[in-house]
């Protein structure tokens, strides 16, 4: 479990500042949700934490280490995206184990790890299938499995459920919450969906126009919104 600390993090694209000085601490083991309207900078912020996007200024610490200039592979993070981009020609087993094979993990160890993860995610019966023979929810579980198998200190999720239908989304919300309880890893979860934020988060970070509007528990935001924006956003029906 690792703490994530952002200090005065900023990002410009050309002349446009899209992240305007973010200071934030995500506690070890916390399920932290970044929520805000489309274009407010959620993905950019997450990509900077992952190292996929370089910050313009500011610092990032993960587990007490300054990783501001570290490669993504050196940050102890795993990221799950909205379009989970599985390898279509590889089986579920190979998709989950892909990162391990890159890291030259011994075959026996790889088999054991992949099968443990598959069990956690109820994918045991599907290990030899190709992605096209899976449902949307199963595919998303494979993408999550690929992240878990690397045993990261911090999980980063970018709208992982937004391509699923409503029924599956609510089921996956429950599954992800259970997964967090089991793994007790630090998780940062990006969504534009207030319901996801309110039901899943230990802590919600409301973003608006590249700035943090408010940080708090779902109850704190609901009962004491700090700005009209937060009140409108959290309180509005979908
Ligand atoms: P969100 O994930 O909250 O929808 P993004 O982080 O994707 O928002 O985008 C924040 C802002 O940064 C938007 O105005 C977007 O157009 C801009 N932006 C994102 N990526 C780039 C890029 N590679 N080049 C230029 N502008 C970008
Ligand atoms: Mg986004």
From TrEMBL:
One Gene Ontology MF term: ATP hydrolysis activity
Per the record, its GO cellular-component terms are: ATP-binding cassette (ABC) transporter complex, substrate-binding subunit-containing; maltose transport complex
Q: For the ABC transporter domain, which residue ranges apply? A: 4-234
What are the UniProt keywords, alphabetically? Answer: ATP-binding, Nucleotide-binding, Transport
Q: Does the keyword NAD apply?
A: no
Q: In which family does this protein belong, per the annotation?
A: Belongs to the ABC transporter superfamily.
Mind telling me what this protein is named?
sn-glycerol-3-phosphate ABC transporter ATP-binding protein UgpC
């Amino acid at each position: 479990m690792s703490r994530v600390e952002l200090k005065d993090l900023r990002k410009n694209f050309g002349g446009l500042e899209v992240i305007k000085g973010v200071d934030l601490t995500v506690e070890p083991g916390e399920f932290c949700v970044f929520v805000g309207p489309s274009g407010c900078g959620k993905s950019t912020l997450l990509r900077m934490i992952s190292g996929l996007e370089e910050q313009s200024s500011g610092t990032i610490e993960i587990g007490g280490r300054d990783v501001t200039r570290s490669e993504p592979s050196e940050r102890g993070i795993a990221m799950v995206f909205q379009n989970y981009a599985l390898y279509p020609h590889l089986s579920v087993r190979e998709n989950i184990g892909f990162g391990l094979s890159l890291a030259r993990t011994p075959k026996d160890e790889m088999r054991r790890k992949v099968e443990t993860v598959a069990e956690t995610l109820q994918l045991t019966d599907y290990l030899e299938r190709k992605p096209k023979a899976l449902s949307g929810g199963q595919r998303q579980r494979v993408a999550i499995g690929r992240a878990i198998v690397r045993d990261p200190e911090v999980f980063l999720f970018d709208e992982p459920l937004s391509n699923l239908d409503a029924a599956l989304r609510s089921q996956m919300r429950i599954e992800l919450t259970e997964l967090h309880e089991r793994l007790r890893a630090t998780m940062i979860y990006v969504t534009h969906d207030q319901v996801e934020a309110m039901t899943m988060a230990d802590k919600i970070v409301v973003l608006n126009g590249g700035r943090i509007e408010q940080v708090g528990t779902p109850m704190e935001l609901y009962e004491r919104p700090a700005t009209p924006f937060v009140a409108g956003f959290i309180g509005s029906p979908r």
